[in-house]
């Protein structure tokens, strides 16, 4: 009997690695399994574990092994081009629409807070389904390319640029959304992202998402005020 939890943890870890490239720590697996009924079928257990992992901070839930993290020289701007073989799981810590002005970005954030999205030039009401909430998939598209702030399980941060439109990437993304990067190019410390090398897993870290929205609006407004002061002083 004593070997059953260990065997189950191995099975669960294998399922998560093979299907989603997620490698939880042994500590996380042990804590998770202690909250589950031992008779729960493996498929149901895997789905629950996946939901919990996508809602977690990967710096505490995933193994920070070199094979599953960004390379140590990822920020070296003297390296013209580096290929990230991966797969490496990262989480979103910030996003910016590079095609929108600061005011437009503030308006987009506030529209999403009101539950509104865009369809062409028309404002529509967006109703988040349970699946959308779980996956962090309610995304305000239109615009782009986007600049993403990313973080791996070791806590290493990196900027990514959306070279080609990636389904699921937009200002409506949830902070904490998990992505898998594979066979991607890093040019002078910046990840070049496109559909062929980026897979959206979804997820959301509620506390970080709320804090980011508040801080992001404040940062944008402060930048606008600074620009206006500079413009006035130059006249």
* Global morphology: globular
What structural class do you assign from the helix and strand content? alpha+beta
Integer average pLDDT: 85
The sequence of SSEs as H and E is HHHHEEHEEHEEEEEEH
* Beta-strand content: 15-25%
The largest sheet is: 8 strands, mixed
How much helix, percentage-wise, in residues?
A: 25-40%
Distance between the termini: 80 Å
Number of helices: 7
Rg result: 20 Å
Query: Runs with pLDDT <50, length 5+?
Result: 118-140
Number of extended strands = 10
Order of neighbouring strands in the sheet with most strands: 1-8-9-6-5-2-7-10
Describe the fold and architecture.
The chain has 235 residues and is α+β, with helices and mostly antiparallel strands. Helix content is 38%, strand content 22%. It has an 8-stranded mixed beta sheet, with helices on one face. Helix 1 (3-20) packs across helix 2. The protein is globular, with a radius of gyration of 20 Å. The termini are far apart.
Characteristic key phrases:
single chain; 235 residues
Would you spell out the secondary-structure blueprint of this structure?
Blueprint: H1 3-20, H2 26-33, H3 42-54, H4 58-61, E1 82-84, E2 88-97, H5 102-113, E3 116-119, E4 122-125, H6 130-135, E5 146-152, E6 157-162, E7 178-181, E8 184-187, E9 190-193, E10 198-202, H7 206-233
Parallel strand pairs: 6-9
Antiparallel strand pairs: 1-8, 2-5, 2-7, 3-4, 5-6, 7-10, 8-9
